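pipeline: protein-struct stage 2 | run 1193 | NYN domain-containing protein
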Amino acid sequence: MENRKLAVLIDADNAQASLTAELLAEVAKYGTAIVKRAYGDWTTTQLKSWKEVLHKHAIHPIQQFAYTSGKNSTDSALIIDAMDLLYTGNFDGFCLVSSDSDFTRLATRLREGGLTVIGIGEKSKTPRPFIAACDKFVFTEILRPEKTQETTIISDKPKARTTRQSKSKPVVAKEIHPLQAMFTSAIDAVARESGWAELSAVGSYIAKNDPSFDPRNYGHSRLSQMVKKLDFLSVQEQRNGSKLHSEIRIKDGEAAEPAPAAAATAIVHAQPENPPPAVTPRKKRSPRKKTEPAGKAG
């Protein structure tokens, strides 16, 4: 993954300039950005925040005038350049930075050409078809670690208060049910007969079916940390030299385990209530000694 040559194409009309540093750091995890281009009409005031960022990160701005009001010609310029770069054969993948559904067909075409497509966009704006068309999709909301930590700290305080005052904790736990269905299907697909599945295989299966899946969306930096916090999963780890091998499975029979103990307790308490009839035997009367008449004595 480190040697992959990537072309980073940014739709400046649908991307945030303040996240450029975090965005390029994310791209570096998947390969080296050989080409970095940002598309937009740089004569407008809407892209003023991009001007300092472009020079700082060596991003080449591509000027595209809006020939007709209400029409976005930036998308067409980006698509044409992407196809030109595809035909050069010098790249291993593309990184499309946008939340626009117009790039859905472009992502599909690039993947048909055998290249990896990484999408980056806002979670609230990006349509599902564009997400599904990419091999991997990263939401920009998780690229700000400081804000994520602040949100976590603030949200933890009211949770602690509500648990003391009322029993609203189980309601929050039910929100992870979509995750449970996702992990259940993934484990069923790759698990062995014992029910245990390799964590790496489960992660690969989930990523193929949901490109937007990322443990950081749920407050965890790694998948191995995330599965340890999910109550419906059992985790076992084995160390082989310097490598840590993790396996997971779905928990089962938790509700049925206390039943035998309860039944045994009931039996123990039931014994004194019905004592057997022969517990206390009747005492046998000793035979009376015959007493001779007083006249015969002596």
